[in-house]
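Students often ask why we bother encoding 3D structure as a string. The short answer is that it lets us treat folding as translation between two languages. Here is a chain of 589 residues written in the first language.
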Amino acid sequence: MIEVRRNWRMTAWVAGVFSVLVGLTMIFGRLSLRAEDPLKSPQLKEYKEKLRLNPPDEQIKQRIRKLDLQLRQRYFRQLSQMESGVYLLLGGVAVFVLAIKQGARCQRQLPMPQPKPDASEQATCSAARARWSVAAGGAAIGAFLFILSLGLSAALPKRTAEVEKLLGAGEATSAGDLQPAAQAKASDAASAQEFRQNWPRFRGADGSGVSVLTNLPKTWDTKSGAGVAWKVPVPTSGFNSPIVWGDRVFLSGGDAKKREVVCLDGKTGQTLWRQAVVGTTNGPAQAAEVPESTGYAAATMATDGRRVYVIFANGDCAAFTLEGKPAWSKSFGALKNPYGHATSLVTWQDRLIVQLDQGDTEDNKSKLYSLDGRTGQIVWQRPRKVGASWATPIVIEAAGKAQVITLAVPCVIAYAATDGAELWRAECLNGEITPSPVFAGGLLVVASPSEKLLAIRPDGQGDVTKTHVVWAYEDNVPDVTSPTSNGELAFTVTTAGMLTCLDAKDGKKQWEHDFDTECHASPSLAAGRLYLFSQKGTAVVVEAARQFKELFRTEMGDGFQASPAFAQDKIFLRGTTNVWCLGAAGGKP
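And here it is in the second language, the structure alphabet:
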């Protein structure tokens, strides 16, 4: 009995020491787990800062992925060890309690035991049974813990796609990866069909200057008023183009003292509402560079069918409901641009895309933003190693991705609309980038001002300068106006009025015609016709075909720098002195 009691005490001692060691290890592991958060690694932060300063660096990206994966593997391995430690501790404590209890039972005094001839043999057998009991109990506990550990899997991904998803935790995913709640949130914007029927941004739904409407006016007479639905004095100063949603026409305007948004009735031209944009205090206080040639309101507004958005040269940005109620406002600070800020706003789903290229390349001031349309909060932002530009970005669907296409010397750069990751770039631009890109027939058409017009396939990765430029055309390239294309033909007009028609597939010239009038408004396509409006008030309609044919010409007695808007079977124009609505009076509701 004494031997048995000693064995149980030894078992209790071993189990107790084991439990204490496991407990201390768990405490140490817990503290270490807090200290080794994989998202707070100094080395990872250092790599991310390097990537922020140099977004295209693929080597840094690979280092970040590798280090991040290593940190997460270690983190989850420690979590798994902590879980196993809990069961080991429970097992150790159970053995300790059992051994103490059995030792106590052996210590009880039995009533006057009488020695037997085989007492020593009996004690030896009891000791053997105790040792086998301890061994069997330990084996059972070990087996139980082993079986339990098989069900504990580390929270690590097993496939490459899952690894990328883990590494991109916290960033936006593609529309197909959105959970139902997120999809419902993203639906807070109009449908693609509604966008095509309206004119929600600079140069229409896709930024190409092309309208799907077929019943647009072919002729009009400003003297008799035939074909002019209404004409009202310009309600506010500015050079931005009108946007149209339903029966509402939106314009922005202002100066150093006051900046505002004006909403006109699309049927009558009457002012429905006007709202001042109150400056915010969260931006830098330095004065904006605002030359008279562009003013404070050169950038065209945008709408997602739920709200309208506006930005001014002093960096003030705001959103209003379609009924004119303020939704939010913020400031990006005064924008450093020698010719003033003219890059217009763009929407994608429920996001507002804001391209702020400014200063010189070495100033590191240029950025691309994606804002939540409801709140104005930044969803993502990307630094751009470029200087000031004036081109407006477009959002296209190509190569299975939603791409934000941006232009600035020296590159055309495509970013993922979901999270701002750079997809590809082509180094092909020079000069002062004012013309905006268009996407038609599977090709991007971009202008390097007064140098060359290029067509680029948007399905590459990394630097595609030498692989994805399909064609280049070097005669009569515009320096201010943007090209337009229906996928079959591409049209450009220079500031001096030289109109050129090219084959959109190979860039071969079909014809050119000199109108000998100054043009700043970009050409637009609708119903097989090309519409042009000059600074001196000349309006021309040309057949959009491989042979030049002028269909209509008139002098409107107004000057046009803003590009036209097509909606509700009408043409809306912002002139120097008047806002025009061309088409039948009243018209389509």
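Translate back mentally: Confidence is low (pLDDT under 50) at residues 147-186. Keep this in mind for the problem set.
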